[in-house]
Amino acid sequence: MITKSKISIVVADDHPMLLKGLFEELTNNGYNVVGKAENGLKALELILKLKPTLAILDVDMPFLSGFEVVEMAKGKKVETEFIIQTFHKEVSYIAQAKRIQIKGYLLKEDSFLAIEKCIKAVINKGECFSESIQNTFENESNGLQNLQFLSPSEIVILKHISNQTSTNTIAEMLCVSVRTIEKHRSNIISKLDLEHKANSLTNWAFRNKISIVNL
């Protein structure tokens, strides 16, 4: 089993205090932190230059997001593994991380024990997603997978719903009756296996807006 001192790590976060805290926690616990960055561009440069075992990245950073750093680094065929550490709990962010094959996704509220657990899993070619979001992702990802069953008309309507456009406005925009839009909404709810409750589709669509607008 690889020892902590042999695990080289680059950390990146645009919040100086959070970056400092993560760097010190890792260093004090025996990890070999070889670089730190306060923006995505510097993080990418460090990863390409140092080729660390692991990079722990924030999502929202200047110049390049954490996701963009990962995609560009993977495009250069680096063997570095990646963990995202963020405040974002939205399923659309988690789905994006899975899409680009990021193996670790943690929330900044997670303990250092959770970080260590995630590091161990990722460097052993496993996956580790924050326990506080795993159940939510599993439930909502079923709906995302079911998007393939929507008709072209339903996809158009769902995109409008994700922008929180009202039923009346959607009907006017598409030159159809309100009753027609309501029927489409009911069909979409059934196909996505959502609860037939007021605003259930609107709330789901808004949470998953990034995935929906790219359909």
Automatic annotation (TrEMBL):
Domain Response regulatory: 8-123
Residue ranges occupied by any HTH luxR-type domain in the UniProt entry: 143-209
Top-level taxon: Bacteria
GO biological process: phosphorelay signal transduction system; regulation of DNA-templated transcription
Residue numbers of 4-aspartylphosphate PTMs: D58
Keywords: DNA-binding, Phosphoprotein, Transcription, Transcription regulation
Protein's name according to its UniProt entry: DNA-binding response regulator
Organism: Polaribacter sejongensis
Taxonomic lineage: Bacteria, Pseudomonadati, Bacteroidota, Flavobacteriia, Flavobacteriales
